């Protein structure tokens, strides 16, 4: 079976530009709302949200963080690497893909408050993944990294941070 091209998924799933890079479409937002949440949430949140997210070879998802855990699911295309820097500065490289013989995982968790960024591995064409957030995603809980500040905080990862951040 011939792999479907990235443009097929962009058109079929009605993906639009995402501020952090790549393309996305929200596919689910729970009608159940949660109130009185700890962890810096200002007001109630939907219990859960989900998006399709697609990155192409020349794109990356810039370092950012949110207040909720984010669950990543691999769907199609080439392997995707998700870089996660936890608050203590530990870097984890999650490799999403469909070949466990090559160390790929179909799923990973990015923990609330960690900085994370992603890109298609090596010379791959694209990666199509899903991202599930609980409590649900709200742009009020989203912070796009400022490269200079993040690189100063995590000096040991400065090269990666500058490579995977929007210019500030």
CA radius of gyration is 16 Å
What is the fold-level CATH name, i.e. the topology? Jelly Rolls
Poorly predicted regions are none
- Sheet with the most strands, sense and barrel status: 6 strands, antiparallel
Instruction: Give the DSSP E fraction (strand runs of 2 or more residues).
Output: 35-45%
CATH superfamily: Jelly Rolls
The helix fraction, in percent, is 10-25%
The name of the CATH architecture is Sandwich
Number of domains: 1
Helix- and strand-based class?
mainly beta
Across the major sheet, the strand order is 1-2-5-12-7-10
Order of helices and strands: HEEEEEEEEEEEEEHH
Q: What's the shape?
A: globular
- DSSP strand count: 13
The rounded distance between the terminal residues' Cα atoms is 43 Å
> For the record, what CATH class applies?
Mainly Beta
Mean pLDDT: 95
Tally the helices: what do you get? 3
């Amino acid at each position: 079976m011939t792999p479907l091209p990235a443009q097929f998924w962009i058109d079929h799933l009605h993906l639009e530009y995402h501020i952090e890079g790549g393309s996305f479409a929200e596919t689910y937002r729970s009608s159940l709302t949660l109130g009185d949440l700890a962890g810096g949430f200002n007001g109630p949140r939907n219990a859960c949200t989900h998006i399709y997210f697609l990155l192409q070879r020349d794109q990356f998802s810039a370092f950012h963080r949110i207040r909720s855990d984010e669950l990543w699911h691999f769907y199609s295309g080439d392997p995707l690497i998700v870089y996660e820097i936890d608050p203590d500065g530990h870097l984890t490289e999650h490799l999403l893909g469909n070949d466990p013989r090559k160390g790929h995982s179909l799923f990973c968790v990015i923990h609330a408050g960690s900085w994370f960024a992603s890109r298609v591995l090596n010379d791959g064409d694209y990666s199509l993944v899903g991202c599930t957030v609980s409590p649900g995603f709200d742009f009020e809980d989203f912070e796009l990294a400022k490269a200079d500040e993040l690189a100063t905080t995590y000096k040991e990862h400065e090269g990666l941070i500058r490579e995977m951040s929007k210019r500030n």
